[in-house]
């Protein structure tokens, strides 16, 4: 089969690889009909290269048709249409029972002291083959896959794999008061959906991004926007009675613009040989923290910051005096996808499309075009916000 494989820093290619096979009774084989490129995939493309191996199949936002199931899989069968959550979780361990599927004790990657395995996401998360391919093996298919109707375009359901539950959790963690204000930093796919969910839940949402096309997409959904290159902290305070927003979602993460020293450090580590680079990131890695600093400065005293953008540094400097003095609450973490399925499936299935899932994709391309789409997405060219690949 064809699959998108990681070959090196800023280098991915389509290769012929062996077809996946059932390996465990809890596996399923799914023929992929749509698979999206996530902003987190760009971290593999640029920053997390020391944890990647040449030939890794990447991608963690797939859906498709079940072709085969293992003997222990009962809730789906061949022919079913399913969305595959990006985290691999068993559904029955202590963490899964707490609704923390991203911390699943069955699939935790203890070699790196990280949480549950993820599809297509480096040694840090288990080196599980991902979904930017014609077929994929789905581990723990006795729990993870989300069965969806056969009607409607894939994009109505595809984002249940990551984007919609991640954004829902981000807003839930931000916990604005009833009728309160929510600032969303970054208008990539997660930021777009966080802003729409915040508005759907009745909050005043102010979204921030330097890219005009991204602000325009948010404005189509009734979101107030600000250009992040123009004194955004002061603008946010001016718009919220001088106090700052009640809550802030950081949907940017480790590669935020403006942190030039940290950016240079990330590039240097990425050029080291993999074993040395891994060790450097594990003990001394730093992130570009401009978005998080903005969130800390902008949120009102006693407010909450929800971090959904991925961070990976182990030596990040934080303004603890400011955070303590302002009594800031922080919530963060990878999304626990299956915790939100029952809440979100009716919303994406609603013909009125209350979350605007049918207005997120900006580019559709065949799997063969994935390498050029990665480059376009990273460089924010051609209004690229969300790419869906069709194997």
Automatic annotation (TrEMBL):
Belongs to the zinc-containing alcohol dehydrogenase family. Keywords: Metal-binding, Oxidoreductase, Zinc. InterPro entries: ADH-like_C, ADH-like_N, ADH_Zn_CS, GroES-like_sf, NAD(P)-bd_dom_sf. The keyword Oxidoreductase applies. Its cofactor is Zn(2+). This is Glutathione-dependent formaldehyde dehydrogenase. Residues 189-253 form the Alcohol dehydrogenase-like C-terminal domain. Residues 25-145 form the Alcohol dehydrogenase-like N-terminal domain. Coiled coil: none annotated. It comes from Corynebacterium lemuris. Pfam families: ADH_N, ADH_zinc_N. The keyword Cytoplasm does not apply.
């Amino acid at each position: 089969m064809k699959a998108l494989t990681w070959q090196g820093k800023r280098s991915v290619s389509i290769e012929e690889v062996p077809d996946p096979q059932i390996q465990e009774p809890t596996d399923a084989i799914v023929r992929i009909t749509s698979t999206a490129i996530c902003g987190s995939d760009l971290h593999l493309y640029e920053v997390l290269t020391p944890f990647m191996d040449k030939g890794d199949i990447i991608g963690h936002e797939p859906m498709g048709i079940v072709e085969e199931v293992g003997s222990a899989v009962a809730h789906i069968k061949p022919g079913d249409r399913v969305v595959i959550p990006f985290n691999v979780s068993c559904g029955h361990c202590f963490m899964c029972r707490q609704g923390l599927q991203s911390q699943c004790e069955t699939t935790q990657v203890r070699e790196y002291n990280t949480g549950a395995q993820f599809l297509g996401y480096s040694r840090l998360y288990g080196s599980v083959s991902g979904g930017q391919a014609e077929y994929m093996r789905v581990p723990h298919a006795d729990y993870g896959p989300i069965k969806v109707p056969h009607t409607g375009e894939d994009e109505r359901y595809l984002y249940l794999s990551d984007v919609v539950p991640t954004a829902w959790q981000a807003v839930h963690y931000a916990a604005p008061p009833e009728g309160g204000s929510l600032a969303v930093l970054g208008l990539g796919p997660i930021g777009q959906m966080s802003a729409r969910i915040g508005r759907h839940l009745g909050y005043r949402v102010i979204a921030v991004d330097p890219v005009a096309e991204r602000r325009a997409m948010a404005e189509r959904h009734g979101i107030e926007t600000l250009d992040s290159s123009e004194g955004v902290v002061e603008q946010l305070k001016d718009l919220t009675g001088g106090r700052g927003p009640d809550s802030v979602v950081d949907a940017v993460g480790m590669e935020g613009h403006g942190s030039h020293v940290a950016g240079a450090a990330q590039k240097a580590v990425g050029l080291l040989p993999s074993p040395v680079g891994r060790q450097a990131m594990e003990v001394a890695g730093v992130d570009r923290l401009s978005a998080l600093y903005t969130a800390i400065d902008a949120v009102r005293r006693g407010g909450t910051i929800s971090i959904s953008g991925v961070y990976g540094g182990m030596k990040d400097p934080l303004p603890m005096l400011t955070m303590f003095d302002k009594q800031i609450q922080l919530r963060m973490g990878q999304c626990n996808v299956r915790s939100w399925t029952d809440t979100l499936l009716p919303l994406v299935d609603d013909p009125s499309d209350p979350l605007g899932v049918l207005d997120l994709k900006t580019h559709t391309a065949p799997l063969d075009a994935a390498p050029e789409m990665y480059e376009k997405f990273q460089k924010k060219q051609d209004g690229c916000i969300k790419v869906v690949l069709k194997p």
